């Protein structure tokens, strides 16, 4: 059953003060799915959601249909909605698509990136590295901040690619990949941190070939680590 009091949420990207109630509710529910607070397969009963998110039934229907179009919710006809299930095949397909999009965007971003891009990248990596240090110490209370800064770093890497559509497509796939990581709470420790550092170094050198090889190992390693932790929910 969905709790009436929802804990602190981190949405990707963060909420703004000018959002409508409907947009804010959408982002809150979406974040709760991505971070596993609404687990795979959970029935999304409108009455419970209305209480938990203080949102009207009609608005909730619109939100859930929107999330269904994104693949995060399954619409069951007259039976309502549920959080999309997980599978090994789905995770592998998401990882392959992320790799396809991100390697292409990296190539474009490295060719076009200027000093402002480098500054964004260094700043994003600094924040991620601090969170990785906290996670490495065994403090998993920062798991959501860790993944937000991970998202920001990978977005910074491709932010000079010159294509808004490519950025949006990558963000959507990355979020689905992130959901698997959060549900499995899959942190690879020093290996992942080193890969991020090497990605930063390659980016600042504009070494696209090295960056793509690191990214392949980074994403494939994440999948293997998540699956090694046991069956998916």
Overview of this structure, please?
The chain is mainly alpha-helical and 233 residues long. It has 2 domains: 63 residues, Arc Repressor Mutant, subunit A, CATH 1.10.10.10; 141 residues, GntR ligand-binding domain-like (Four Helix Bundle (Hemerythrin (Met), subunit A)), CATH 1.20.120.530. The protein is built from 9 helices and 3 strands; from the N terminus they run αβααββαααααα. A 3-stranded antiparallel β-sheet has the order 1-3-2. A hairpin with a 5-residue loop joins β2 and β3. α5 packs antiparallel against α6. The chain is globular. The two termini are 17 Å apart. The N terminus is likely disordered.
The chain-level structural class is: mainly alpha
- CATH architecture annotation of the largest domain: Up-down Bundle
Strand tally is 3
The CATH class label of the largest domain is Mainly Alpha
- CATH-assigned homologous superfamily of the largest domain: GntR ligand-binding domain-like
Cα Rg? 18 Å
Percent helix: 55-70%
Integer tally of domains: 2
Largest sheet data: 3 strands, antiparallel
Quote the distance from N terminus to C terminus.
Answer: 17 Å
Q: Beta-strand level of the residues, as a percent range?
A: under 5%
Q: Helical element count?
A: 9
Shape type? globular
CATH topology of the largest domain: Four Helix Bundle (Hemerythrin (Met), subunit A)
Instruction: Give the spatial strand order of the biggest sheet.
Output: 1-3-2
> What is the N-to-C order of secondary-structure elements (H for helix, E for strand)?
HEHHEEHHHHHH
On the 0-100 scale, what is the average pLDDT?
A: 88
The residue ranges in which pLDDT falls below 50 over 5 or more consecutive positions are 1-11
